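Aim 2 progress update. The chain analyzed this quarter is reproduced below.
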Amino acid sequence: MPSKDIKSEIGIVHNLTMKPKLTRRNFIKPLAIAGLSLPFTSRAFAQLAEKGKRIGIIGLDTSHSVAFTKSLNASAANPAYDGFKIVAAYPQGSRDILSSTERIPGYTEEVKKLGVEIVPSIQALLEKVDYVLLETNDGRLHLEQAIEVFKSGKTTFIDKPIAASLSDAKAIFHEAEKYQVPIFSSSSLRFATGMPEIKQGKIGAVLGADTYSPMKFEKTHPDLFWYGIHGVEMLFAVMGTGCVSVQRSISENQEVCTGIWADGRIGTFRGLKAGKQEYGGTAFGKSGVLTLGPYNGYDPLLVQIISFFKSGIPPVEKAETLEIFAFMEAADKSKKKKGARIKLQL
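Predicted structure tokens:
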């Protein structure tokens, strides 16, 4: 039941708006007129969010957190979001990746303006939400943070990379199964332009694919885990599972990872280290060739996340996610062995 002060805040809003329908825009404006502070705005907004559709964020050290909040909490949100809102966030993400930690104060202020209550711990977050977006940019923290969430039984989306190692990725799935919590992880590039057509069979059976994306590095993560994962995820979204080996070729401006699938198909990922930074690729099918990309924003991924929250059915299988990480670890070993072909180890 809402507390007395929350009831008062909501009452003020009702009296000031004098409108039968309360929207995000006419909610914030009268509060500003009334001189109420942002924490009150956040608390009242959380109370007004429909129970069963309340989402919490862990980690405000990534632009994804702000982008997701802007989309879901907009007054004219995509109807496919079905009224789901982000109501609370625990800001702490990476502790030592400067490019992440320096973002937290600014992103915290941005989501507060969108009606999100900032809480001091994951436990405090779990008391206020029905579902969780684990957005922490640092994959090394995902296992410990995920376990805390899994104990609550709340369905969880874990942003890329699901972990900073294949062993941690396996452990996360093990813990999710232990606590019977539905989870999935994905890059938004999995749902880029052209991907639905592949799934619908527009070019027939896929015989091979080439994908590309920017390839930025972070010393705390294996090379492809930090940013190359976008293009690798696109590759597996098209090719599916069954990759048995990978060979990595490196030059100053680009890198190419060539995967061989068990049925003889070949798929490549090209990491762009210089020049125009784009996302895309080409899929080669039995009855046609299709261009993949360009990147079309977060909406396609968010639609999948909301559908997952409602159904509990992940749009990306555990086996595929783990094979992606086995591919990236094998590519790292290939680099250390000067381009040798490395078998995937799952």
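The CA atoms of residues 213 and 231 lie 5 Å apart. The two ends are 49 Å apart (CA to CA). These observations will guide the mutagenesis experiments scheduled for the next reporting period.
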